[in-house]
């Protein structure tokens, strides 16, 4: 018998017990959720009405800097990371928008979810729009911009809750700008609420049950992974057929058939989490952007139109903080959006081209196979976004005077881990390729896709810094 079996069995028992604990202690979970809402509301509203912090302000003596740490230094990067470890537990247990939209839908109009709202492209469109808009208003730097972007999303979540669903999270399921990202990342999480369908069928009608209110509208009986589940635990133990369980983290993606791979997921991974995210973090460090900007400004000075150089756009549309000498012209706004989209186009075309070449070895339906292979890039895309967001953590830590000598090595390790994980996923996905030579050729093409992504992040962290 495997010497580790008792340890594994004990860990599995503890995990399942934790799932049951969540179910049995809904009151405690709700209290924590409302505490998070209170802290979130305070940190998002109050700093927006305070003067801009001085250059030497610190987290412990300035509320605006403290809020910056909370939102951009810790919350975003580590919530992204948590998806790879604990699935969407953040969504189900802590997210203030989830709590608020569900509470609103308890007292709202309880309308059925219309067809247009269930369109699968919303998470992709919302992620792109929010990412680009966030850059235009400098959401990471200024509290009023954070109030507009995060607060605007929260108001929309409440509004959707007031109209659609009854005690449901329609916003989280269909519209939240990061729900698509969280959904794909959690596909490689090592934990999920496992549904034993045989036990379900056997016990249905024979075992007394309480109805389960699954707020994100998961069809629980058919659930095969954690991508839609928000890990709230309410269904734990239902019909003795559901338990929070460990699983091999690569199994879901490796076994995903091309028929179940979603084009919107692939677009979000390749264009959103890779292309647009890289563009959004690149532009402010890019010497190419500076060259573009100088050339475009010279062109506009010579040929007009002059209004492109005016800097009177409102702060909620384009960055406008004269006190901090940080004001965008309309031309700046156009160039930033253009640079992000151009980067996304170049990077995602290279990645998609490599995936199409790899898909050629997988048999018929080349595009569908390339869509399936795009899922192999989830770890690298997720860890890339984590690195991009954590560069704000590094900037904040630098301002606090923390020693940061280990940062380059950590970045190399994280990027290397993401690349290795994605390559191992691609190799598993290619297991059904007929002969070894074709599998190796397809794997080499996947490796090119991985190399493109690694090179783009390396350029930012090691080429331009
Ligand atoms: S399936 Fe629904 S009820 Fe069950 S844990 Fe996931 S989100 Fe909660």
Explain what you see.
There is one protein chain. The chain is mainly alpha-helical and 465 residues long. It has two domains: 136 residues, no CATH class; 210 residues, no CATH class. A two-stranded antiparallel ribbon has the order 1-2. It has a two-stranded antiparallel ribbon with strand order 3-4. A hairpin with a 4-residue loop joins strand 3 and strand 4. The protein starts with a helix and ends with a helix. The relative contact order is 0.11. It binds iron/sulfur cluster (SF4). Iron/sulfur cluster (SF4) binds next to loops. Iron/sulfur cluster binds next to loops.
Helix and strand succession?
Answer: HHHHHHHHHEHEHHHEEHHHHH
Shape: globular
Query: What's the gyration radius in Å?
Result: 23 Å
> What share of residues is helical?
55-70%
Q: In what range is the share of β-strand residues?
A: under 5%
- The helix count comes to 18
Class computed from helices, strands and strand pairing? mainly alpha
Number of DSSP strands? Answer: 4
Query: How would a crystallographer describe the biggest sheet?
Result: 2 strands, antiparallel
What is the assembly state of the chains in this entry? single chain
- Which cofactor or ligand species appear? iron/sulfur cluster
The average pLDDT value, as a whole number, equals: 95
